[in-house]
Amino acid sequence: MGEYRAGLGWDVHRTSAERPLILGGVAIPGDVGLEGHSDADVLAHAITDALLGAASLGDIGMHFPDTDARWKGADSMKLLEHAVKLAREAGFEVVNVDSTVILERPKLKDYRRAMRESLAKCVGIELDRVSVKFKTAEKVGPVGEGRSAEAQAVVLVRML
Ligand code: C5P
Ligand code: MG
């Protein structure tokens, strides 16, 4: 049996009424969006960092710096797709993804299936290997006050 490795990812973005809310490549309608140099897909960023971590390949800022014109305004799912490719080149395949988005509002549960499908397609694994969970911050702290959103992820990889 091949060796398994786990990686941990976390990200945060400020909320903004002027920006879209994109999570796992899915646009969520409403008046809450996220600020950022990219599309601010906080979930895709956390999963990308978890995957890079599992493969000991550094972090998202190292591979996709804001200063690199190649990735400017890039769809974050493209960055995740690229990280999957880097991990594969390093000899790893993704076993599963678990994640949590912490956002006070809007309610996200109706979009869970769409996010899981979008992430599974991007990572190249079956739907039942991708989990996306949601939490509020109980009105406490910057997330609870609606000023930011966070995401956490764990990715397990197996050596090819
Ligand atoms: O954070 P809390 O425990 O109150 O979340 C209760 C439920 O609401 C969770 O099951 C979660 O899936 C859902 N939720 C959601 N959208 C959010 C936060 C929580 O759908 N932004
Ligand atoms: Mg980010």
Give a written overview of the molecule:
- Helices cover 29% and strands 31% of the residues.
- The protein has 160 residues and is an alpha+beta fold.
- It is globular, with a radius of gyration of 15 Å.
- Bound molecules: cytidine-5'-monophosphate and magnesium ion (MG).
List the helices and strands and how they pair.
Elements lengths: L3 E13 L4 E3 L2 E3 L4 E2 L7 H13 L5 H4 L12 H14 L2 E11 L9 H12 L6 E6 L5 H4 L3 E12 L1
Parallel strand pairs: 5-6
Antiparallel strand pairs: 1-4, 1-7, 2-3, 5-7
Helix pairs in contact: 1-3
Cytidine-5'-monophosphate binds next to strand 6.
Précis, in short:
The chain has 160 residues and is of the alpha+beta class. The chain has helices at 42-54, 60-63, 76-89, 112-123, 141-144; strands spanning 4-16, 21-23, 26-28, 33-34, 92-102, 130-135, 148-159. The longest helix is centred in the middle third of the chain and has 14 residues, at 76-89.
Characteristic terms for this protein:
160 residues; five-stranded mixed beta sheet; 5 helices; 7 strands; 31% strand; globular; binds cytidine-5'-monophosphate; binds magnesium ion
Residue-averaged pLDDT, rounded?
A: 96
How is the main sheet built? 5 strands, mixed
CATH class: Alpha Beta
Judged by helices, strands and strand pairing, the structural class is: alpha+beta
Number of helices: 5
Query: Strand percentage, roughly?
Result: 25-35%
* Series of H and E elements: EEEEHHHEHEHE
Q: Which bin fits the share of residues in helices?
A: 25-40%
Q: Report the principal-axis shape.
A: globular
- Determine Rg (CA atoms, Å): 15 Å
